[in-house]
C-alpha cells in the first residue's frame, strides 16, 4: 500500500480541474496579434482633424493668422478655420458648455497651425517663450493646442491681461500683479473652465492651452483648406 502522502499527491494531480486550458489561449493570441497589427497600421497620430464649428458651433472664431491683424502683419492662412484633433475639439466644447452656464463663452484665435507657418513665426520671433521652435514642433502643429479668450453671451470680448500675441512678460501667468482687477477676474473665469476640462496652460502666454495627450499626435504640415 502506498504511503498516505503519496496518495494525496496523486489525487491533487488528477482531481483538481484545470482552470485555463492552454489550447484555448492559442486563438486568443492570434486575435490579439491581429488587433495590434490593425492599431499599428492606423496610429492615433493619423487621426483626422475636425472643424471646431462642427463640434462646438457656439465657440466664436477670430482666426487672426488668416488676417493681417497678427504679429506677422500678413495673412498666413488661406482659410479662417479652426481644425483640431477630435478629442481636443470635444474637450473645448465641454469648456464652452461650462462657461455658458455662467454667461460667458470662448473665442478662438488659433488652432491647428501648419509647420511651414511655424517656421515663418520662428524666423520673426526665435524665442521659445512666445513661439515654439519648429525643429521640435508646436503643439499647434499637432492640432492639440488653442489660443483663445473670453467673450460674454453676446460674443463681446472681455477685458483680458494683454492683447493676443503680446510677447512680453506681462502676458505671463505669473504677472497677475500687473493686470487690472477686471482682467484678473476674467482670466480666472477662463482659466478655471479650461483646467477643469484638463487643458494645460503655457506659463508665458495667458491665451495658450495645450490638450493633454498632445504628444500622441504627429506634427503636420498640411495647408489650411
Ligand atoms: C505664436 C503664439 N500664438 C503661440 O502659439 N506660441 C506658442 C508657444 C507656440 O508657438 O506653440
Ligand atoms: Zn498658442
Q: Topology, please?
A:
Layout: H1 4-15, H2 22-41, E1 50-51, H3 52-55, E2 60-61, E3 83-84, H4 86-100, E4 104-110, H5 115-124, E5 145-152, H6 181-196, E6 200-201, E7 208-210
Parallel strand pairs: 2-4
Antiparallel strand pairs: 1-3, 4-5, 5-7, 6-7
Helix pairs in contact: 4-6
This protein binds ligand LVM2DEV6 and zinc ion.
Ligand LVM2DEV6 binds near residues 130, 131, 140 and 202.
Largest sheet, order of strands side by side? 2-4-5-7-6
| Total beta strand runs | 7
**Average pLDDT level:** 89
Bound molecules: ligand LVM2DEV6, zinc ion
Measured between the Cα atoms of the first and last residue, the distance is 88 Å
Rounded to an integer in angstroms, the radius of gyration calculated over CA atoms is 26 Å
Q: Low-confidence spans: pLDDT under 50, at least 5 residues?
A: 1-14, 40-45
Proportion in β-strands:
5-15%
Structural class assignment: alpha+beta
Helix count from the secondary structure assignment: 6
Largest sheet: 5 strands, mixed
Helix content: 25-40%
- The general outline is globular
Q: What is the chain-wise order of helices and strands? A: HHEHEEHEHEHEE
Report a brief summary of the structure.
The chain is α+β, with helices and mostly antiparallel strands.
Question: Could you explain the architecture of this structure?
Answer:
With 225 residues, the chain is of the alpha+beta class. Helix content is 34%, strand content 12%. The chain contains 6 helices and 7 strands, in the order H-H-E-H-E-E-H-E-H-E-H-E-E. It is globular and about 70 Å long. The termini are far apart. The model is unreliable at 1-14 and 40-45 (pLDDT under 50).
